[in-house]
Design goal:
The complex is a heterotrimer of chains A (50), B (218) and C (242). By secondary structure, chain A is mostly helical. Chain A contains 1 helix and no strands. Chain A starts with 8 loop residues before the first helix and ends with a helix. Chain B has one domain. In chain B, α2 packs antiparallel against α3, α3 packs antiparallel against α6 and α8 runs antiparallel to α9. With 242 residues, chain C is mostly helical. Chain C has a domain of 133 residues. Chain C contains 6 helices and no strands. Chain C starts with 8 loop residues before the first helix and ends with a helix. Classes of the chains: A mainly alpha (50), B mainly alpha (218), C mainly alpha (242). Chains in contact: A-C, B-C.
């Protein structure tokens, strides 16, 4: 599955792992904030109209 | 503008004005460094000029939040802003006052403290010269930072966070010129760059300071 | 119709809503293809061994770290000149993405530096510049977080971004002067001899496209969040008043 990375295997894999974790973190954070804000706004709009 | 400058100088030198605190801080940092890195003369004399620069920079940082905060709290800043002088001049006067009460004393004190750090003999003039050239830029950049954070309660820590990255170019060229001069190398290029940064800061940053003050006083 | 109309908050919400899934989708496809290609299908470099594969993360993230700051600078200028709220919010939205890119570039660089240069950290000009850029991002975000009034915050951070850009550029030259580097010259110019070879180049291009698309998608998403937050704030103020 994983190609032969020679003696630097650990470095390469850890670089990929660190980057993917960081990317997922920023995506997840942005997503959560977006959902939270949308819900809050919807309840506020509903209160205003209802 | 001169009246404002004189007023700030009087306020700073009065009891509780904070004049001298920066100097004492400078002294303490310089005394602490040998405790941290060990008392060997060879190491100390090698890093002396750099330590003097970093310590002077931190000492200048210490008194920045006083530049505008007190005037902002008691409303004097609003009065100054409505006075018939441009805010750009106010920024420049404030920076000058800050330099006269911290930058200049630090420059004078640095060679004296150099003795404690085993600064080599030909380094004294270079440390004094680079600080003389560089500290006006530190004051001007700091005034901009102080204007930026004037409306924020407990903005002191934020001020340091904003101003320190802006100090990097000044520090690099200043310390590099001092280091090269101390080591007997040619220091013309960093000296010119240092002078350029100071001149550029004094020419341009008053406008940014005034713009930021206007936003904060809106 | 003027281009500026797309910056009206309501219009912005209108056109970004449908675009967003496509942007995320395209970014996902590009990143998946590019990283898979880079990780599994490229040969080892004769000098760097398999560590050459780190380039597919390091170069795109470093590019985006700088481009994100440039985008914030442009957005700040637009806000100061034309007072488009979306522009200020987009600058705010881009900062956390930019700092993440900076962090990825720094960390992959450190991991790559350990076997290649024998140390995780060297005070190499480019590394140092990125560390300084990281500090600038931190200061910018801290200033946004510290001010309550949104318009004042937008104004002050815009001025900070402009002044900061000048000083960041100065730092770049200062750092170059202060220490000669370990980095190789340009690896991505079109006419240089030292250009990386095609085997590495095409997956790299795909990865760069993926990072650009991901940045765009994230900034759009975050800007939408900021617009909603602003609207919520306005609604709450109105409720308190009545």
């Amino acid at each position: 599955m994983i190609p032969d990375l020679g003696k630097y295997g650990f470095e390469v894999v850890s670089a990929y792992a660190v980057s993917i974790v960081l990317l997922l973190a920023i995506i997840g954070l942005s997503w959560r904030q977006s959902v939270k804000q949308r819900r809050a706004l919807e309840t506020a709009e509903a209160r205003r109209h209802g | 503008m001169i009246a404002l400058l004189l007023r700030d100088l009087r306020l700073a030198t009065r009891a509780g004005g904070g004049f001298g605190l920066g100097l004492v801080f400078f002294l303490i940092v310089v005394v602490l460094v040998p405790f941290g890195v060990g008392p060997e003369t060879a190491i100390l004399s090698k890093i002396a000029s750099g330590i003097l620069w970093v310590a002077a920079l931190l000492a200048a940082l210490l008194s920045l939040d006083r530049i505008f905060a007190l005037d902002f709290e008691d409303g004097a800043l609003t009065l100054i802003a409505t006075a018939p002088i441009p805010l750009e001049a106010v920024g420049l006067a404030k920076a000058t006052a800050h330099w006269l009460t911290t930058g200049l004393p630090l420059t004078i004190a640095a060679p004296v403290l150099g003795v404690l750090l085993q600064l080599p003999a030909n380094g004294y003039s270079f440390v004094a010269l680079t600080l003389l050239l560089g500290t006006p830029a530190l004051s001007m950049i700091g005034t901009f930072g102080a204007a930026l954070t004037v409306g924020i309660r407990r903005g002191g820590l934020l001020l340091s966070l904003l101003v320190l990255p802006l100090y990097i170019p000044t520090l690099i060229f200043g310390a590099e010129a001092a280091r090269r001069g101390t080591a007997g190398l040619d220091a013309t290029t960093p000296l010119l760059m240092l002078a350029g940064i100071t001149a550029g800061s004094i020419a341009l940053l008053p406008f940014a300071t005034a713009a930021v003050l206007r936003i904060n006083l809106r | 119709m003027s281009l500026w109309e797309y910056a009206n908050p309501k219009k912005f919400m209108g056109w970004t809503g449908p675009v967003l899934p496509w942007a995320f989708g395209a970014a996902g496809v590009c990143l998946a293809v590019g990283l898979f290609w880079g990780f599994f299908l490229t040969p080892d470099d004769y000098r760097q061994g398999s560590t050459v594969k780190i380039i597919y993360l390091h170069v795109p993230s470093a590019l985006m770290a700088i481009n994100a700051w440039m985008m914030m600078l442009v957005a700040s200028l637009i806000w100061l000149v034309r007072r488009h709220h979306v522009s200020a919010l987009a600058a705010k939205a881009a900062a956390p993405v930019g700092i993440t890119m900076t962090l990825i570039a720094l960390m992959t660089g450190a991991i790559w530096g350990q076997p290649m240069w024998g140390t995780y950290w060297a005070w190499d000009p480019r590394l140092t510049s990125f560390l300084i850029l990281f500090l600038f991002y931190l200061g910018y975000m801290a200033l946004w977080a510290a001010i309550d009034d949104p318009d004042t915050a937008a104004d002050l951070t815009s001025v900070l971004c402009i002044v900061g850009s000048v000083f960041a550029l100065l730092s770049r030259y200062a750092v170059n002067f202060w220490n000669q580097g370990l980095h190789q010259g340009a690896s991505l110019s079109l006419d240089k001899e030292e250009n990386v070879s095609d085997v590495f180049f095409f997956p790299l291009l795909v990865c760069i496209a993926g990072f650009v698309l991901l940045f765009v998608a994230l900034v759009l998403l975050r800007t939408r969040t900021e617009i909603r937050a602003r609207r919520l704030r306005a609604l709450q103020l109105r409720e308190v008043r009545t």
